[in-house]
Protein 1
Amino acid sequence: MAQGDVRLNSEAVEIIDEGKGKWMYYLSTLWENTWPLLALFVLWDLLARSGVIHKALFPTITTVIVTIGHLFTEGILIPDILASLSRLILGGTIACLLGTVFGLIMGTNRVIEKIMIPPLNFFLSIPGIALYPIVILFLGLSETTLIATLGFEAGLTVLVNTWTGVKSVPPNMLYAGRVLGAKGWDFFRRVLFPAALPSIITGYRLGFSRAWRILVAGELLVSLGTGLGYRIFLAQDFLQIDVMYAGVLLIGVFGFLLERVVLRSLEVYTVQRWGMIREL
Amino acid sequence: MSKLVVKDLHKSYVINEGFGVRSRVHALRDLNMEVNEGELLTIIGPSGCGKSTFLMVVAGIHPFDSGTLLLDGKPITEPGLDRGVVFQDFALFAWRSVRDNVKFGLSMKGLPEEEQDRITDHYLNLVNLTEFADVFPHRLSGGMKQRVGIARAMATEPEILLMDEPFGSLDAQSRKILQVQLLDIWRETKKTIVFITHSVREAVFLSQRVVVLSSRPGRVVETITIDLSYEDRISLSSSLMDYERHLEKLIEEQLEDDFGMSMNVSMPAPKHPGFAKDEMLD
């Protein structure tokens, strides 16, 4: 693990692998994370080529990749990706911030907690997609509608995870912070937040994956003319089956990148390095 | 001179038994105690006698019902840097290196950076952890973790050090070594220390005076002065055993009382395990 900069005891701890440098490490990590997916794609291709399922209904992955190339050269793909990602990142980030702050407050104040639990459970059971028609009434067919709805869904997820995270911090950890003089904002930022971070990061991961789902569905309902979700549903209307597959593939790839590159890295560099979660 | 004065201290807390049934547990009642300046005093008693509760009250974490609690003549109302606490489960900050754990209180104090580093180095050296300064706590053994805990509590130079069964979760060897180290540190710094333990041997080995508490609600049964030299302690002289035997008998009596009492308790037994209301962040 990336802690080799500390020699605990030169006699007791020996470096058994010097590694092959930073870039080789990144490369091997990339390979570790992609080969199972690539294997899946190969299976897809073999299955499609075998002809068990009709080619028109289940195109080969090479066809889908060619389609992605066409969409790219036609100048449709980049605006779609940018539209979807910017909605996701904007809504998701706001949701993470608000969810964390309110989760920390809810986990530390008994009165607020008691008041918040019933409405929280009420709203948690409502799928974001069911809210779109109502949100559209107020915010119209707009970007704001998409961002607000996905933010709502992701924010609640982050809130619940932060709240339960705070509640499961050992009391002595909090006492230690207080007897060492941490109060108010300092206490939140330097004790409570890091102590609850394992659960908070889980909240971010769940929050973003839920946000991604709700966004794709929303792009159909709100139909702003851009977005990967919109592209899939448009392709359905025109029976462009390969475009439908291309859209689904890209959604999966971006979700995968967000999780593996951003959120997983965050986890490795914080809670895993600190020994707060187990490394497999 | 008395550093810490405890007079008629009463501490109770409410337990939620479920289905709206709530009960009040009296952890400490009419507790009287004085801790002298520069003294290492241990508190010993049957488990559940309120020893740890008492320490958390002194630390200012838990409020108390009535009585007087003075540190250097000033009433204790909230946590403060004039009291350092060492916890049984270490309670180290996993997200901070050993050095940054020790530094935490100093930065909260708002000392200049160089001053913080200088003091941190001093205390890391005192507990022999200089070479582990940049390691995250999860890589340390139990004994080392607790040494970080001690350094962290001492770094802010509190008036009094409160130690809540600090060696209770350590293996026998680490425990022995840390006891000697603590005794050495105490001799060197002459810090006022209140040390909670349920090991009679530990109490006699370490302290000037031992306070024996009764079972809940905790009261002082007896205070014993351990009149032994450092050499007597280190060499485990036979007079150590006399004190141990005496203390052991006192605690056994407490336990007998405890068993006698539990035959006719007036409080209804909980239908299912109750949850102690956490008093940590009110």
Protein 2
Amino acid sequence: MSKQHIRATVNGDAVDFLCEPTTSLLNALRDELRLTGSKEGCGSGDCGACSVMLDDKLVCSCLVLAPEIDGRRVETIEGLAQDGQLHPLQRKFLEHGALQCGFCTPGVLVAAKALLERNVDPTEEETRYWLAGNLCRCTGYDKIIRAVLDTAAELRQERLPA
Amino acid sequence: MSYHSPTSVDQAVELLASRDDARPMSGGTDLLVQMRSGRLKPGAIVDIKGIDRAVGSRAQDGGFVIGAATPCTELLDDAALCAAWPGVVEAANLIGSVQVRNRATIGGNLCNASPAADSVPALIAAGARAVVAGPQGERIVAVEDLLAGPGWTTLGKGEFVLEFILPVREPGSADAYLRSIPRTEMDIAVVGAGINLSCDASGTITAARVALGAVAPTALLVPDAGAALIGSKLDEAALTAMGEAAKAACRPIDDKRGTIDYRIAMSAVYARRAAVIAYNRSRETL
């Protein structure tokens, strides 16, 4: 089996690596690029712990083959904080205690960011449906939803004219 | 295993025909899961997303053409398609989560051939035809004729579904799809019902197609159920007759999601509800 040479942009950085054609994007991120923030919960697209953005689309990285990202753009949880500053979602998750074991949190944050980029004023129902593909076995979701809605409220405030 | 990303139909056909264990891939949301579980061990994966015709939707000859490898969520961005075929678009967007729908496609949903596939009854009700590319060139097949059984299609060696053709829409026509699931999201249909109908200015139904999912080894077109609606204004008698025809067509299994009796009973319930939605939508287009 010959390895394939992949060139892509991950969190704004040009990367290139060799991988087997059957390697998932998730395994390439974790094992080749050492970006271990994205987690494997189920490996079948049910849990969302491996959520990343691929060319601005929210996807499960376990359901993408690494060769598919050649020439494309990937954003992971490692790209959320900028210049040492937590993303507002990360800050609100800490404030609300919206995590316990933390395994689902990277995927939830990436998915929630994708939601707020589309819609900065989602209803609770829209938020719950959007995050239906991110399973959390600890918190019961309530604090996650509150943290996302509170982040949205803060982002809307920032957009008000001074 | 090797991974290929051809940019032309001919390249894809050649790759698929070159070995028995080559598999086409569009979104990969079923294929990669089956590979991981060991159920499938393809020797070559032929990713068809690089073929222009396989992605995107476009108006053509008064109807629509949808590339078989178009992600389900991208159908939502085509306002004209959503207006003409809301049932097809809503069925495709009941599948899985946002993450899954950003990858999953109606071509893959059809060819994975799950009896419970959500988009398939909607496509059958719509009278959708598939453009199949293969070593002998292209052929056009009714979607219901591609289904052979759970996990099986009638596609031959080297063939893959390239596009879907949705027919010309007349005023007074609309479709709808509903499914029964135990949860509110992220589940697999216990029963699915797709309805497509046309009515005249007086509200009398002039044409109707009813298709059911998850109640037989393949999604079913139920001609008797459609016929029961024609000539009516969707009165109680017509709905009852349609429901009885739907139930008579069911050949379901018992499993953890639903019993045989429950699936049969629910087929009438969901067909009725979908018919009401399709009928109300059709009246809005007059």
Protein 3
Amino acid sequence: MTMTQKTYSDLPAVVRLPLYGFAAVILALLIVPLAAALPIAFNAEPWFRYPLSGFSWRWFEQLLSSPLWRSAVVNSLIIAATTTVLATALGTLAAVALVNPRFRYRNAVMALAISPMVVPVVVLGLGLFICFSPLGLNYTYLGVVLAHTVLATPFVVVTVTATLTRFDFRLMQAAANLGAGKVMAFRTVMLPIISPGVAAGAVFAFAASFDEVVMVLFIAGPDQRTLPKQMFTGLREQLDPTIIAAAGLMIVLTGLLLAVLRFSTKKR
Amino acid sequence: MLITAAQQPPGHICLRGVSKSYDGETFIVRDLDLDIEKGEFLTLLGPSGSGKTTTLMMLAGFEYPTSGSIAFDGQAMHDRPPEKRDIGMVFQNYALFPHMSVAENVGYSLRVRGVDKAERDRRVADALRMVQLEQFAERKPAAMSGGQQQRVALARALVFEPRLVLMDEPLGALDKKLREDLQLEIRHIADKLDLTVVYVTHDQSEALTMSDRIAIFNDGKIQQIGTARDIYIRPANRFVASFVGDNNCLCAQVIAIDGDVVRARLPGGAVVSARQTQHARIGAAATISVRPEDLHFCGGEAEGVVKGRVCDVVYYGDQLRTHVELSDGALVVIKSSPGAAHAGTQVGAPVFLSWNAGQAWVLDPKQANQ
């Protein structure tokens, strides 16, 4: 006897068509806002209005030539890159501890480690602002990086933990048996095997920092003005399509990172 | 005379009073004493949960004894981490590193020990030649068959010349034919390199064919330790008798001890003979154990003959197994050659069985929970 897998085309039309419709609505919700906003970055006139009055790269030129926008791009890249390194290292190490069944308080620590994902960012931002004041960390790069690391680490913890649940821990026993100490075994056996999960966590951490604005509003000074902060200011002060061009740049950068990640994990 | 570890020849491994418990109440291994000689192939055999794997894990250093000591050449070993023990191990399902090639897997122990590249390559090539895999050096483990992966695991465990090699049911995942080939191959390599091997299995035929000595585990204790022949022919107790090979275990009452021969009465009334062991006490219950191949059919009732009724005859090609129900309800199995005189016995027919007193043993009586 052979069993054939049922596919959607086997379903009756009464079930199938509403399902397709539902999927279409969800996809539209994701795509339409982008499709509506992004073309304005190429508008020849400084208006948020259709039809576009002509095609031009002027807002991208503005983005890269205006000192305000350019320093925002550079700040965002520096802060996001540093945050990624810190969050990836901390999150990966935390995940290794959190999957160890001998770690007695793992559930409590796990809840704490991912709490920045559920606690409102405004509350975290205010709390950090209060804590950073006596330490002199407000209005510094280090302060912004630490704040973003708090937000980004849970993404790494979650993705690496998910990867580690499929990791065969007897490989670590095998490494120890062959003479490798804990650090050596982690570096040569565990890390290469879980690296797709670590890389995915790193991309999420980068994205979390790169488009973060609430923490920046609390912690950053004028020298740490990031791209989202500049966009926020632009919305209120001098509304022009540079904001959309900046958003386009952010989407392209994050998209590129995701593409690199996919490519590098497929190659294995 | 008390022999201290320092007087033993080099390579001696000594376990004294080793116990392991996770909760302080139930012991997985209890008060274990075991000596392993240099160059010996020792198999730990027992049902699952008998403590054999835990003992292996304590030797490897993945578990620490709750009490007792493990010493190599008189040097305490039980509290050292696994990476400082210099013990090779072949894991169940191999535990090969999936991201490394076969050569990288085998060379891993040399790499972490800082052996230089030329020396490493030479020793890896030697190890792969030994397991006949030299042409697979650049493959990833996932692209190899189970038997080949097993050989890689073996080469990886041997390449750094460990002082002890542990094997945890290494052939469990392979089919019967391949398993038998690899049993011989492992045994040959162990002999050639004069390895000290501790091998864990629950497969008794594997234990009987490979080992110099076998330790039978049950309930966290070694029930008997000795050569395959010792254990098969002279089981020390009822558990060993029924675990190793097929054995007929009959409940009986000891009525007389006459030098080397014990007379005992079966519940059905027949008086039978068996060899004396430490278990026989006049008037006490005991077990009479007889191998199926040592039971014979005989003509009629006489001294030492047991009556029964055939309830099944099973043909195995090279042998015939006749299942007989004795008059007291006990079931026994007789192994005989298919050409024997009684081969035509019908199910339901009455038969008479006997055995030589020298081939039956008096063992400990059946426990309530057995």
